[in-house]
Amino acid sequence: MAYKTLQHFVHTLQQAQELVIIDEFVSPHLEISEITDRVSKQGGKALLFTNNGTEFPLLINSMGSEKRMCLALGVKSLDQAAEEISDLFAGMMNNSGGLMGKLRILPTLGKIASWMPKVIKGRGACQQVVMPAPDLSKLPVLTCWPHDGGPFITLPAVHTKDPLTGIRNLGMYRMQVFNNELTGMHWHLHKNSARHYNEYKQLGLRMPVAVALGGDPSCTYSASAPLPDNIDEYMLAGFLRKKKVELVKCLTCDLEVPAEADFVIEGYVDPSEDLILEGPFGDHTGFYSLADYYPRFHVTCITHRRDAIYPATIVGIPPQEDAFMGLATERIFLAPIRLSMIPELIDLHMPREGVFHNIVLARINKTYAGQATKVMNALWGAGQMMFNKILIVLDRDISLTDYTRVLEVIGETVDPSADILLSKGPSDVLDHSSAQFAFAGKLGVDATDKLPVERKAGSLFPSNSNISKQEFIDCEGITHINTSYINHGLLILAVDKAIAKQINKFHSILIKKDISKGIRFVVYVDKQVDVFNMADVAWLVANNCDPQRDCFITLSDITDTFQQLVIDGTRKTDKLDGFKREWPNVLTMDVDTIKAIDAKWDCLGLGVLIPSPSLRYRALTLPGGARVSSPD
User: Fold this and answer.
1) Which residues contact residue 330 at a Cβ distance below 8 angstroms, ignoring those fewer than 6 apart?
2) What is the CB neighbour count within 10 angstroms for residue 116?
3) Could you give the strand order of the β-sheet that contains 310-312, starting from the edge strand earlier in sequence?
4) pLDDT at residue 85 in the model
5) CB 209 within 8 A of CB 267
6) Confidence at residue 471, expressed as pLDDT on a 0 to 100 scale
């Protein structure tokens, strides 16, 4: 389904009873974020803030559920798009060759051609109003979290072109607003736009950049999609909406943008200029990404529709709206990965607690020894999957979203001494746990049923379900213990770290005392963590762990063949761990904003008061602002 405008999508949300219109004044400075955080974590509706101190309504959480994500993409289910891609690939690949084979794929090629974007003459609706002087302060740009470096544009479709080939790239990169005509451009070193920037720098040329906001939500989604290099994101949008995207020329730079966008911000990046300190920013990891240097984006023109709506999103501790954008990516790109790289792949799932890339579950059709390892290496080499930190491969016919069953299978199939693969490679620049910037370890877990050649004799020592909690609590440093998953071979311990290399030393004591016998997986977290909230444990451990450094296998006194996988998911410091980088804080809202929203809640039309999620996570936020103060 093609939405002519963002207003059309808003109307569709209203008709589906998926939208709440809020006419009470709410400030873009922290207040909209606090309300949205409460609503999104409750699985609530999209929100339209009509009274925000500017002339433009603000739409947020519009894709914050699976139902709304399907509405945005015009599908009945997210798997529908994957099935359509599979059919498309099959139509192009399954032909017998020769003249007749080529003729059979002509209808498929015709479909593809009908999805290609088209540049139309004249101005588009996105250019109905041209600001006399570009002024970003006219837009309701959000300041999302208390220690953010400033207001950020959070849902932009950033357009750049390769200066050598002219091929367009569409990406979604946050933009910190510094003044009316200047923002940062936060493109990471692995992104196509960063490559374009480096090419312009080598050529000694200014880089034209255009930013579109709003319009058909399929265009917004496509800006976030992990497409291969040199494939036009507007072709994906055309495929999703079953209609080509119409583009118009910008007024002050040589780029094209969607004719029906709500706002277009035109300008340039000058690679010869000094970079600007951008951030901190409350990021999708649930932690602040700390300040760093990025290019300056100079605004030369701002245009908009007469009835423009400003689209925004917030990110933070999962779940948030981006979890459902990630779910769409997971389902849509399953078919291309299977058909082009990993034919044995049956299903793929990225739990929201893994914030896209930290945790990935894969189910395969296993037919030979070592196949799980082959799949791990293939996935780690597939585009943005290179950022994955923990990858678990299974082959049983189970739902990957049934996490209890997944844990059961891991407990039944994984021998830490034989089924764990530790590797290393590129990591996301937002990975705060890596000892080196953008380079870290990876943990692969082979949870498939093993063939005789893969299984060592005497492995998989049975788990011990008769462990005494008191034995652990009596050990100095242990504050909480979760033995709920002992039958699956998993033990979770919260510790009060006080000495250097405490996790290694403490675990050696457990082994010597024979307390942890029969346990195959031991996970350590900080004392502030609720060890019984498995979603939070998974989120924090995956964020705080560099597998190359923090995952180790220990011998057990029980038998020479049995070993344990230990995962240190605690916060790292220079004093206790020799960790030299700054450690970011967990995102929570400030007390004054929480109280202000509590006070106006009854005027918002959102029903019974939803307590602030930040109250739950207050214990995880440590002194120091965006970064945790050094304990030294």
Assistant:
1) 348, 349, 350
2) 13
3) 19-22, 46-49, 58-60, 310-312
4) 74
5) yes
6) 63
Q: Which residues contact 373 (CB under 8 A, 6 or more apart)?
A: 421, 444, 446
- % helix / strand / coil in the chain, to the nearest 5? 30, 25, 45
Q: Which token pair is 348? A: 């793929």
**359-364 vs 310-312, strand pairing mode:** unpaired
Which domains does the chain carry? 6-312 (2.30.110.10), 322-454 (3.40.1670.10)
Preceding amide of 319 cis, omega within 30: yes
Closest C-alpha among 568, 462, 596, 436 to residue 24: 596
Active site residues: 283
Contact 467, 486 (CB under 8 A): yes
Q: Can you give the pTM of this predicted structure?
A: 0.93
Q: Which residues contact 74 (CB under 8 A, 6 or more apart)?
A: 1, 2, 3, 218, 240, 241, 242
| Angular region, 465: left φ>0, alpha ψ -120 to 50, beta rest | alpha
Measured CA to CA, the distance from residue 178 to residue 169 in angstroms comes to 25
pLDDT at 102: 46
pLDDT at 100: 46
Judge whether 510 and 473 are in contact, CB under 8 Å.
no
Which candidate, 383, 460, 426, places its Cα nearest to that of 548? 426
Write the Ramachandran bin of 86: left for phi over 0, alpha for psi from -120 to 50, otherwise beta: alpha
Q: Which two tokens stand for residue 463?
A: 């788990």
pLDDT of residue 204: 97
Question: Number of helices and strands (H, E) in the chain?
Answer: 20, 30
Beta pairing, strands 207-213 & 263-269? antiparallel
Rounded Cα distance between 223 and 156, Å, is 8
Which ranges of the chain have pLDDT less than 70?
1, 88-111, 456-475, 513-516, 555-562, 631-632
Task: Tell me if residue 421 falls in helix, strand or coil.
Answer: strand
| CA gap 413, 285 in Å, rounded | 30
User: Which of 45, 20, 47 lies closest to 33, judged by CA?
Assistant: 47
Q: Give the whole-angstrom CA distance, residue 404 versus residue 255.
A: 50
What pLDDT sits at residue 95? 55
Beta bridge partners of 611: none
Alpha-carbon torsion, ordered 590, 595, 598, 601, to 10 deg: -90
Q: Which of 496, 386, 510, 518 is nearest to 441 (CA)?
A: 386
Residue with tokens 């195959």: 520
Cβ atoms 149, 278 nearer than 8 A: yes
- The radius of gyration of the chain's CA atoms, rounded to the nearest angstrom, is 25
Largest distance between two CA atoms of the chain: 79
Distance CA 235, CA 247 (A): 12
Sign of the Cα torsion 219, 221, 223, 225 reads negative
pLDDT at residue 105 in the model: 47
Give residue-wise pLDDT tens across range 516-559: 677 889 999 999 999 999 999 999 999 999 999 999 888 655 54
Cα separation, 387 vs 385, in Å, equals: 5
* Cβ atoms of residues 490 and 411 within 8 Å: yes
What is the C-alpha to C-alpha distance for residues 442 and 458, in angstroms, rounded to an integer? 27
Answer left, alpha or beta for residue 19, where phi above 0 means left and psi between -120 and 50 means alpha.
Answer: beta
CA atoms within 13 A on the CB side of 489: 23
List Cα–Cα distances, 446 to 398, 545, 565, in angstroms: 15, 19, 13
Residue pair 492/481 in contact by the 8 Å Cβ criterion: yes
**Cβ of 133: how many Cβ atoms within 10 Å?**
9
Six token digits for residue 246: 């119409």
